[in-house]
Amino acid sequence: MRDTDEKFTWPTVGLHWILAIAMIAMLVFGLYLEEMPRSPEKGELIGLHKSIGVMIFVLAVARVYLRFLNKFPRPMSVLTNWQEKLAKVTHWVLIIGTLLMPVSGVIMAIGGGHPVALFGLEFIVGTGVKNEILSNIGKAGHGLGGKLLILFVLFHFIGAIKRQFFDKDGTISRMLGIKVRAEHSIE
Q1: What is the reported pTM?
Q2: Structural domains of the chain sorted by starting position, each given as residue range(s) with its CATH number in brackets
């Protein structure tokens, strides 16, 4: 089953919303962790953050696969040139970000000599030797990536609201799995 201009499949809709909610929650969680003083509790929360990040990465790979299988959706209404370019850049940043944030987190952990485990099971990446360069690359990518994702999530949210409620083109309805009228779609 493939996405159409009128309706997205449930896997597309489900992965979009699961990843959207998970990524936003992880961005907030990450900002909270940054402000927390060093403590055993912080270490436990970082372990939880890593585990959720690993699961997000797996779901993001599935979403990327579906996105390329189904292609990017066509806009439901006419956009100005700058709006169309911003929408494309935003979609790409969000897709790439869902992959690179977990990867940069793993790089940061490995560089710091810390394990990357899935809820305590260290079968993913165990504790290793610290590598400051690798750790700094991971920190920079994770920190800058998080800030960029926050910005582009806002762009995405504002664009979706504009198109649904001001342009009245059914963009959010389609992303909820609701069939929209084909005449809204542009050629």
Answers
A1: 0.85
A2: 10-184 (1.20.950)
